[in-house]
Specification:
The complex is a heterodimer of chains A (324) and B (518). Chain A has 12 helices and 2 strands, in the order H-H-H-H-E-H-E-H-H-H-H-H-H-H. Chain A is mainly alpha-helical. A two-stranded antiparallel sheet of chain A has the order 1-2. Chain A is globular. Chain B has 2 domains: 233 residues, 3-Layer(aba) Sandwich (Rossmann fold), CATH 3.40.50.300; 249 residues, Rossmann fold. Chain B is built from 17 helices and 20 strands. The chains are: A mainly alpha (324), B alpha/beta (518). The interface between A and B is medium-sized, with 23 and 31 residues.
């Protein structure tokens, strides 16, 4: 029994680690998309953020400065997205893709130029990384059966950004549903003309939304390169931005359900790692490649079949212009 | 003397080469209802957009209550005490009424606090002006009349003392129109100035104190409503004498050319849109379908024209029974001599990016006369369009101009020309004059009547009661996909039809309905 518990705990523990960037990106996308701006560029912003975090941290030796750098770079890319598709009414998907391509190319090019390690950044250690934090009392309760183990192994022992990601969800909910900004944000994604005629600037509102998205993508990026790993590796975002977007849609653009979707996707990934090479009853050993593809296959199936009636913000993807 | 609530002086506004407003002067007295009428493109909407801060005027002054105001955005307009109820409501459908009302005017950054104060204020306004709405209802679930009420409350909540209503009655039943007018009267009594933009003459006469007519971007005249007539206003709008009643002889119905038998249509989500509808259209008569839009008329036209396949029941056209075992498409229907002028010409009648000559053959593009062995016969296509344009007086008569660049009336004339050219035995016309100028309305009605007189069967769907009553020979009223009434046009009046449209007596108070009766 205790062996089973250990396996479960370590799988859930891995789920939390894998889910963290998904959650941050999904909340980022929620701000952007609820305001009516399609955010396919989550991936690129996270990747650029990851590079910035690792680069700054390796130069300054401070993970927190790295985090600030990541946020700064991701917000800049958000503003670029905003400039293209809010100010100039460009196509939001094209702009988002451009940001992804830009981030993928620029991080490697700058990485080679600055660090001469084939696009990687130098390995980070000590204060240049976000290290795990033992929550108070974790050691003391370690030997309490079940609950103690859950607290000390599952809840305690993560780095600061993991906790931040999980705090982001109720904060996002509060901002979107309990504040004036949130009311206007939801309104502008549904009917920007109504917002405009109510005397609120649609442009400024949407810019604020994409800035929020940039902020969260930056944190997600910093997590990848300075918390989960110890350096930037090219293409390290590896499609997580897209998975987060899928989770956001699967979660019907709501914080709580998007969180659950992120955890589901994270759990699937953690599970595949655990089950790799383990023979399953009836099926036998499943090829590693298939296991790795499983979360993506499930994503497609879930999105295609089981999403139910997901009503997207009505004005999503449509640039706002006054002319009627 | 009290300064006027609104005083516009020499307003000019151009969009590229088009001058939408030329030296417009307008005074609206405080606490009055001022009507502004004009055809499409006369510049009414532009003028109101300038007043509400959507556009900035190129030159001119706006005085609000005698004070020079610079209005550059809706925010400035709201600040100056101007509120606007748009033709297409500016509401967030999945928000509650309360949220919609307070959006943009929240008292605090916390929604909870804002809602508490907004609820009190909304209650006060509802009581003062007799505008009862449930603040917690989801706006999208409300009837159109109630949504409009929310729009009015929104303006009042922002402290509007001047209220602009843009074509407010287009989507309302006669009963809802009556309620709206009661509200406007209440507003006037409490000193609110109302500007009512409309193209419906009888509404102007029923409710306004003064009326201003616009034509071609200029103010043509301002009249005291009590001293003017419908005929005078129509003439001022168009610039020439207009026949308001359709000039036609009594119908001589012949044999049945189109018959629907027990048609039932369910949409993709399983909702019944058409419920056991049976009707007959005879040669030499115009059958009108009246009803508030969205009560099955669109589905009826779709199934009668072959756009939507018959699911239950059958359609008999040209001696051919079409049912779910014998499905024909829209092209086959055309070959059975059916013409169809679509309700929404931008969605179904034409491709706005196509040139007029392409629009003029849509649906007939496979006919041999337009096609060579491999390529289309461009010359024939162009000539065909030129011919239609001449016959139906489409202006400008340029077959290469993009369809979108014609006015609504000319687009409609082109669509009708295309459908009537082959002298169809059966013609379906959806909203014959939606977005069409008075001058063109007269022409379109004449064409439809002449087709009837030539022995065709015509079915007209219109939400304009007046049009149905004056153009048609027989009227059927639809409600929630069912036929709820039928009468000869000669026996119909707005009151009878209105009651049927709102489903028989759900509104039992009929005394005040003469407002819409002409």
């Amino acid at each position: 029994m205790s062996e089973f518990l250990t396996i479960m705990l370590s799988t859930f523990d891995a789920t939390i680690r894998v889910s963290t960037p998904l959650i941050l990106c999904a909340m980022a996308g929620l701000f952007s998309e609820r305001s009516g701006i399609v955010d396919i560029g989550l991936e690129g912003k996270m990747l650029a953020g990851a590079f910035a975090a690792a680069a700054v941290a390796s130069v300054t030796g401070s993970a927190w400065l790295g985090l600030l750098g990541a946020i700064g770079v991701a917000i800049s890319m958000s503003l670029l997205h905003g400039f293209a598709c809010i100010t100039h009414k460009g196509n939001q998907v094209v702009s988002g893709l451009a940001i992804n391509i830009l981030a993928s190319g620029l991080t490697v090019t700058l990485g080679i130029a600055w660090f001469h390690q084939g696009g990687q950044t130098p390995l980070l250690s000590g204060d240049a990384r976000f290290l795990s934090i033992d929550l108070p009392g974790a050691l003391a309760v370690e030997n309490v059966p079940v609950l103690g183990a859950i607290y000390s192994q599952l809840i305690s022992g993560h780095n600061a950004l993991v906790y931040l990601a999980f705090i982001t969800v109720p904060v996002t909910w509060w901002v979107v549903y309990q504040t004036r900004f949130g009311l206007r944000l939801r309104a502008v994604g549904e009917n920007p003309q109504a917002v405009d005629t109510a005397g609120i600037s649609v442009f400024w509102l949407r810019y604020r939304a994409v800035i929020c998205a940039g902020l969260l993508c930056g944190i997600a990026g910093a997590y990848l390169s300075t918390a989960q790993n110890a350096s930037f590796i090219r293409e390290m975002s590896a499609g997580k931005g897209y998975i987060a977007l899928a989770a956001l849609i699967f979660g019907k653009w709501r914080p709580k359900t998007a969180l659950l979707a992120c955890l589901l996707f994270g759990f699937l990934e953690a599970l595949t790692v655990r089950l790799e090479g383990v023979p399953l009853p009836l099926i036998g050993e499943v090829p590693a490649q298939l296991m790795q593809a499983l979360p993506y296959i499930l994503t497609v199936i879930l999105l295609a079949g089981f999403i139910g009636k997901a009503t997207a913000p009505k004005a999503i993807g449509i640039p706002y212009s006054k002319e009627r | 003397m009290q300064p006027p609530a609104i005083d516009l002086r020499k307003i000019n506004k151009s969009f590229g080469p088009v001058q939408a407003n030329k030296n417009v002067n307008l005074k609206v007295a405080k606490g009055s209802i001022h009507g502004i009428i004009g055809e499409n493109g006369a510049g009414k909407s532009t003028l109101m957009s300038i007043l509400y801060g959507f556009y900035e005027a190129d030159s001119g002054e706006i005085l609000v209550n005698g004070k020079l105001s610079s209005i550059r955005s809706s925010k400035d307009a709201i600040y100056a005490g101007i509120g606007m109820v748009h033709q297409h409501f500016m509401l967030i459908e999945n928000f509650s009424v309360l949220e919609n009302v307070m959006l943009g005017a929240e008292l605090s950054s916390s929604l909870k606090e804002s809602k508490i104060s907004a609820r009190e204020e909304l209650q006060r306004l509802s009581n003062e002006f007799g505008l009862a709405v449930d603040p917690d209802a989801i706006t999208g679930d409300l009837a159109v009349g109630l949504q409009q009420r929310v729009e009015i409350l929104k303006a009042l909540y922002r402290g509007a003392e001047i209220l602009i209503l843009d074509e407010p009655t287009g989507v309302l039943t006669p009963q809802e129109v009556r309620q709206l007018f009661e509200i406007l009267n209440a507003l006037r009594k409490r000193g609110v100035s109302v500007m009512l933009i409309t193209h419906k003459l009888q509404e102007i006469l029923a409710i306004t104190d003064e009326v201003t007519v616009m034509r071609g971007g200029t103010m043509v005249a301002t009249r005291e409503t009590a001293t003017t007539t419908k005929e005078e206003l129509a003439e001022l709008m168009v610039g020439r004498k207009v026949l308001l009643e359709v000039d036609k002889t009594p119908a001589k119905p012949g044999k049945v050319l189109l018959e629907a038998k027990n048609l039932t249509i369910k949409d993709s989500s399983g909702v019944t849109r058409l419920d056991n509808v049976s009707l007959k259209v005879h040669a030499g008569e115009i059958l009108g379908i009246a009803g508030v839009s969205g009560n099955g008329q669109t589905e009826l036209l779709d199934v009668l024209s072959g756009i939507v396949a018959v699911q239950q029941g059958s359609v008999v056209l040209g001696g051919c029974a079409i049912d779910k075992d014998n499905v024909l498409n829209a092209k086959d229907f055309r070959h059975l001599s059916l013409g169809h002028v679509a309700e929404d010409r931008h969605k179904q009648g034409m491709v706005t990016d196509f040139s007029a000559r392409e629009t003029a053959i849509m649906g007939f593009q496979d006919e041999p006369e337009f096609n060579g062995r491999i390529f289309m016969n461009n010359k024939a296509v162009t000539e065909h369009c030129v011919k239609l344009m001449a016959e139906f007086d489409v202006r400008p008569g340029n077959p290469h101009l993009k369809s979108a660049n014609f006015s609504g009336g000319n687009q409609q004339k082109l669509c009708i020309a295309r459908e009537m050219e082959r002298k169809p035995k059966v013609l379906l016309v959806g909203q014959p004059t939606r977005g069409v100028d008075i001058g063109a309305i007269e022409f379109i009605h004449q064409q439809v009547v002449s087709l009837r007189d030539a022995g065709s069967a015509v079915l007209v769907v219109s939400v304009e009661l007046e049009e149905v009553m004056s153009l048609c020979d027989r009227i059927i009223v639809m409600f929630e996909g069912r036929i709820v009434g039928e009468m000869a046009a000669a026996d119909a009046d707005a009151q009878k039809l209105g009651l049927l449209m709102g489903n028989a007596g759900s509104e039992s108070d009929t005394s005040a309905q003469e407002i819409t009766a002409s």
